[in-house]
Amino acid sequence: MTAIDPDSLSAAEAREARKARLFTRINKADSWFKVLGLSFMTPLLKAAAGDNPKAQLKEVWLLLGVPVLAICCFLALWANLAPKVQTSLGAVPGPAQVWEQAENLHADAQRENQKEADFYQRQEERNAKLEASGKSDKVKWRDYTGKPTYYDQIWTSIQTVFFGFLLATVVAVPLGILAGLSRVGDAALNPIIQIFKPVSPLAWLPIVTMIVSATYTTNDGLFTKSFLISAITVTLCSLWPTLINTALGVASIDKDLINVSKVLKMNTWTKITKLVLPSALPLIFTGLRLSLGVGWMVLIAAEMLAQNPGLGKFVWDEFQNGSSQSLAKIMVAVFTIGIIGFLLDRLMFALQSLFTFSNNR
Amino acid sequence: MSTAHPAVLTADHARVVYNEDTDRPVEAVRDITLELHRGEILALVGPSGCGKTTLFNAIAGLIPLQGGQVTVGGTKVEQATGHVGYMLQKDLLLPWRSVIDNITLGLEIRGCPRAEARVKAQDLIDRYGLSGFERSKPSGLSGGMRQRAALMRTLAFNPDVILLDEPFSALDFQTRILLQADVKRIIREEGRSVILITHDIGEAISMANRIVVLTNRPATVKSIYETPWGVEDVDPVAVRDRPEYQQLFSTIWQELELTPRH
């Protein structure tokens, strides 16, 4: 008969417990990997921890290998086909030329930042001299007015889209709640939604431009006119998904839950805050994600015409410029727009995961 | 017997008609008069679709009466604020709230300070077997635990009358029997007055002090039976073995005319 050493048994148990804790941590991290678009990390970590490495590596191949391979195929196809397409500005740039222009834009930005730093340093030195020689009245502080860098333009676009998106949310969520809670509200809003939802940003832009120009007459306000025009156009085009999803989320609340609110004699405000909003939040966030996506797409067109100094204006200026590098720079902007769009969606998904419930959370 | 206690809820010639203003009105409840006494469990049984839930909703003040009235503690139920607690076969726990936050919901709405509400909720949790699950979301609980949490939410709100509309029907048989015993014990300990709507004659007999048998739609009171169990008979499983149980079951079964046709 074989005797079992209790020490080795407890060591094995401790090992198993450690392994179980590790897998619990990996599973917890998985939801965040999904949010960040790094789903492939979970099977990698599981394989490293010794959980059926063969099956896990198959999963890694599916989640990481296949997408990387697809991107490589796309780049190869692009590199081969691009030189064959001739335009008025020469051949369509391939991946190498686009990468080169991305580096150039980065170098330009660094040079511009250096210029700005030098300008402020010179200004400080000059003003210090004036103060030292008792000419304080001659001291002047001026803002640097050099051209915005590529990163400045990206930042302007992000600020604009968020301002427009915020306005859209402030308008759409209350209206959506109204439409979801009241049949009269729904009947009133439905035709307006159906009529205005398909309208293109290019149709809104002239109207918005006229109204902003007529009402926003100050030149030293908090926002520039071009910023407001772009942001309001984003608002008008992006509020519909949030409005529709909020109304749907509110309207599809379990009728028995509404009865609970009646039995508990909840007032309207309590009903909205304690029942309606939390219950509708998953759908509201779906609407917000869609709205932000639409807003980002609309923004580029709006900036082109409103001349808001963001990515849209950058694309337009390069198109007008017509130099041999313009197409490559426009393509850099296209990739930038795509990557930022993806990151904005991930950001909204992360917020959705934080603030809403699901059946397993 | 239960009749010695004062009535906490009275339905007086209650009548409910749907689509009354149309040319095809549907009378769901006709001329129902009944009393619920303090500390009593009153069961309503009747054929499927007879209007039990309609009557339940009228008693809860969720739908208007077309005739008669329902009063809770002398106040018309439509005006009664928080006199009635409500529990269905769906537990209706809010999925975004933890168990303890679900239980405190009614108290929060009444303006009870959060800390005080949590103390009350924790007391119920400790007494009635949900310790350790305070922070869990409803999705992490079994069906029986969810119904128990729903009952605690109803109890925490401290209503004069608790309405139970087939609260166990969505559960498997074993859980249902165990939960019936739990609920009966909890209700007795808390000294609550309860109206229980059920399809299950056995459930009605083993849990209730009195059983009201309703007719087919439009629902009217066909007969009322008193169950022979004393205060000590809180175990719905044990009473099922008694001859009185079998006898009452047969009587109500025949009364409901549920015998299969050949």
From TrEMBL, chain A:
Keyword annotations: Cell membrane, Membrane, Transmembrane, Transmembrane helix, Transport
GO cellular component, one term: plasma membrane
Subcellular location: Cell membrane
InterPro entries with a match to the protein in the record: MetI-like, MetI-like_sf
Transmembrane segments: 60-79, 154-178, 199-216, 228-254, 275-306, 326-344
Entry's Gene Ontology BP terms: transmembrane transport
Domain of life: Bacteria
Protein's UniProt keywords contain Transport: yes
Primary site of residence: membrane
Family, as annotated: Belongs to the binding-protein-dependent transport system permease family.
Annotated PANTHER family: ALKANE SULFONATE ABC TRANSPORTER-RELATED, MEMBRANE SUBUNIT, NITRATE IMPORT PERMEASE PROTEIN NRTB
Protein name: Nitrate/nitrite transport system permease protein
Native species: Tropicimonas sediminicola
TrEMBL record, chain B:
Gene3D superfamilies: P-loop containing nucleotide triphosphate hydrolases
Keywords, in A-Z order: ATP-binding, Nucleotide-binding, Transport
Coiled coil: none
Lineage top rank: taxon: Bacteria
GO MF entries: ATP binding; ATP hydrolysis activity
SUPFAM superfamilies reported in the protein's UniProt record: P-loop containing nucleoside triphosphate hydrolases
SMART domains linked: AAA
All copies of domain ABC transporter, residue ranges: 8-241
The keyword Chloroplast is assigned to this record: no
Pfam families: ABC_tran (PF00005)
InterPro entries in the record: AAA+_ATPase, ABC_transporter-like_ATP-bd, ABC_transporter_ATP-bind, P-loop_NTPase
Family per similarity comment: Belongs to the ABC transporter superfamily.
Protein name: NitT/TauT family transport system ATP-binding protein
Species: Tropicimonas sediminicola
Lineage: Bacteria, Pseudomonadati, Pseudomonadota, Alphaproteobacteria, Rhodobacterales
